[in-house]
Structures are given as structure tokens and as C-alpha cells.
Write a structure and sequence with these properties.
14 helices; membrane; transmembrane helix; mainly alpha; globular; transmembrane
Length: 380
């Protein structure tokens, strides 16, 4: 007999997979010339950021669901601004790729995410070069190359956009570790959106003004409120579903769910968008790449478990966090629940983060687990 807690966990996982897949497919439908024909990815991303920032402001300043962190101008200017710049770039380039290549091929290219983040972390000195990890990265890269070779409708422009978005996201992840964690700053999903979404909106406004504003004015664009509202609402809901899933089940579970989601998404995209064709070589290459990612995640999880301190109770952990805050000492979070949320500890190499769905969470693992489980109990 399945307990109520296990049932809720399965429901959260189902909601996460549904929202994560749904947001990607929804974005593709909105941007595709064959469907809604809104070929303005920067505008769409700005709508998401504007909506998320507004909701976060309402929750913090009006409803006071959570309290804002002690954010100084210096920390905001030197940490949040550069991180937001790379985050905005990753969303811009990633969403633009939908105009040129299929959802299935985009998911296959995203297997390069751990490769890009690992290389970036090694260059920045936050990760040591290991032979076993390097072999896994080579395996992932070979798989992606095979998958790309088998792509029927290969488009250079779309591929460059997607790879550039991956590189920007890798830089953002490394900056998150180097800049925010070393200052002891931790943000939950709401405060993360509160500080980062407006800054992303400003960065996106510059290319939007020169690239998308003129053609939108020439075409006398008419805004469809319900389409864009529902799209932005789904993107916002994905942030909180990720938060709940990791808080209840941990990062390992959400990685497994992410792999399952990718396969479901590839299959669904070929059904919903018949022009998307996948070949046996596509699947073979992607399967090889995923094998590398799975083995890499296994190695990293073992590293995390071997270096974990004794587990504290929830009460002791909460008390320790309060004490740490009062002393204003640098907070060094655990590794176990980070990779799917954009924050990584010093020994983590940012393996499996995917931010195409705009889940801009910057929360530390111990708080994520504690807050997520607490919130889960309240809504259970």
C-alpha cells in the first residue's frame, strides 16, 4: 500500500515532468511560424521575467510570504547583475533556437550542459580535472556529435544559438558559485526571482529595442493576453514545482525524473510537431550521451555522499542556520540538492542543470530541503 507521503511525492514528480515538458512545448508552439507564429523570443522571455518579478514582488512586499535578504548595493552590482546578464543571455539564445531547430534536437544538444559547465569550472579553478570525469565528458560529446550527424533538418544557426545559450548558462552557474556562495548569500525561489528577474528584464530590453521592437511596430502586432499570461504562469509554476520536488525527494530523484522527461519530451514533440523528424542515429547518439551523463552523475553523487558530514535533525539544522545568519559568517551549503537549482558547492561540477524552462532558483541545499519539506507539509 502506497503511503500518503509517497503518493504526494509521485504527484509532485508528475507535476514537475508535466510542467517542464509543457513549458518547452508551449514555447515552441508560440514561437513556431507554423503555429502561433510569434517569432520574437526576446519579447517572450521578457514577458516571463516581468511576470515572475511582479509575482515575487507581490509575495514579498505585499503578502510578506518570505522576507527579502540583506542585499547591499555592492553585492547586487557585483554579484546579481553579472549572474543576471548571463542568465538573460542563456534564455535569449536558448529560446531563439526554437525558431530554427526542433524540440527533439534541442533536447539532444542540451546533453552538452555538463560538458560546458565542467570545462568552465576547471578553467575558473572551482573544479579539478579528473580523468574519469573527463572520459565521461568525451563520451557525452561523442554522443551529441553522432546525434547531430543524424539530424535530418540540421540548421547551423539554430545549433549555434543553442550551444551559445548552453555556454552562457555554464558561465552563470560558475559565477553563482564564485560570487554568491563565497559571500554567504542564499536565495529561495521567490527571493531569487525578486532580485534576478527585474535585472534580466533590463538586460533583455537592450537587444529587444534594436532587434524586435522595429518589426513588431511595422507589423502592428496585437497582444494576445491569455496566451502570454498562461505561458508565463506555466514558467512560474515550474520554478515552484522544482522547489517542491527537490525539497521532498532530493536532487538525485529529480535528475532521474529529468532524464525520463527528456525522453518523453522527444517523443511528444514528434507527435505534436510532425515536421520534427528523428532518426535512428539521433536516438543512438543521444542514448550514448545520456549514458555519459548518468555515469557522471553517479560519480558525483558518490563524491557528495563520501564527503557529507553527519546528518543533523531538522530542528538542529534550522537552529544552526539561524545561528549562522546571526553571526553573518560565510555559509557553505551541502552538495546533495544543488545541481538542479543552479547553486553548486565547491566540489560540485554543475552536472545536470537545465534552465531552458526558466527555473531561476538560487537556493542552497539545506534550506531547500528544509523549506521544501515544510512547505510540502503545509499543502499536504
Amino acid at each position: 500500500m502506497i503511503s500518503k507521503q509517497h503518493l504526494l511525492t509521485y504527484i509532485y514528480l508528475l507535476v514537475y515532468i508535466s510542467l517542464s515538458s509543457g513549458v518547452i512545448l508551449y514555447n515552441k508552439w508560440v514561437l513556431s511560424a507554423k503555429y502561433f507564429n510569434f517569432s520574437y523570443p526576446i519579447t517572450l522571455t521578457m514577458i516571463h521575467m516581468g511576470f515572475s518579478g511582479t509575482v515575487a514582488f507581490f509575495l514579498i512586499r505585499v503578502l510578506k510570504v518570505v522576507s527579502p535578504v540583506n542585499m547591499t548595493f555592492k553585492i547586487y552590482a557585483t554579484c546579481v547583475v553579472p549572474i543576471s546578464a548571463f542568465f538573460a543571455a542563456s534564455l535569449w539564445f536558448g529560446n531563439t533556437a526554437y525558431l530554427y531547430i526542433s524540440v527533439a534536437f534541442i533536447q539532444m544538444l542540451k546533453a552538452l550542459m555538463p560538458v560546458a559547465t565542467f570545462i568552465t569550472a576547471v578553467i575558473c579553478g572551482t573544479e579539478k580535472l579528473r580523468f574519469d570525469v573527463f572520459l565521461n565528458m568525451v563520451l557525452v560529446s561523442v554522443g551529441v556529435v553522432i546525434s547531430s550527424y543524424g539530424e535530418i533538418h540540421f540548421n547551423v544557426i539554430g545549433t549555434v544559438y543553442q550551444v551559445t545559450g548552453i555556454i552562457a548558462e555554464a558561465l552563470r552557474l560558475v559565477l553563482t558559485q564564485v560570487l554568491l556562495q563565497k559571500k554567504g548569500l542564499t536565495l529561495n525561489p521567490i527571493t531569487s526571482l525578486y532580485y534576478i528577474a527585474p535585472c534580466c528584464f533590463v538586460f533583455l530590453f537592450v537587444p529587444w529595442y534594436f532587434l524586435e521592437k522595429p518589426p513588431m511596430e511595422d507589423l502592428h502586432f496585437q497582444f494576445n493576453f491569455w496566451i502570454f499570461f498562461s505561458n508565463a504562469l506555466c514558467a512560474l509554476a515550474l520554478n515552484f514545482s522544482t522547489f517542491l520536488v527537490i525539497g521532498r525527494s532530493g536532487a538525485v530523484t529529480i535528475r532521474v525524473a529529468g532524464v525520463l522527461k527528456d525522453w518523453i519530451l522527444i517523443a511528444l514533440s514528434t507527435v505534436l510537431f510532425p515536421e520534427s523528424k528523428i532518426t535512428g542515429l539521433n536516438i543512438t547518439g543521444y542514448a550514448i550521451a545520456l549514458c555519459g551523463v548518468v555515469v557522471y552523475n553517479y560519480l558525483k553523487v558518490n563524491d557528495v555522499r563520501s564527503s557529507e558530514p553527519p546528518v543533523l535533525s531538522i530542528q538542529d539544522g534550522a537552529a544552526k542556520e539561524v545561528k549562522t545568519e546571526k553571526k553573518e559568517s560565510v555559509y557553505m551549503p551541502d552538495d546533495s540538492d544543488m545541481k538542479s537549482n543552479g547553486v553548486h558547492s565547491r566540489n560540485d561540477s554543475f552536472s545536470d542543470s537545465r534552465f531552458d524552462e526558466e527555473a531561476a532558483t538560487l537556493i542552497s541545499s539545506s534550506r531547500l530541503s528544509h523549506l521544501g519539506r515544510s512547505f510540502s507539509r503545509h499543502i499536504a
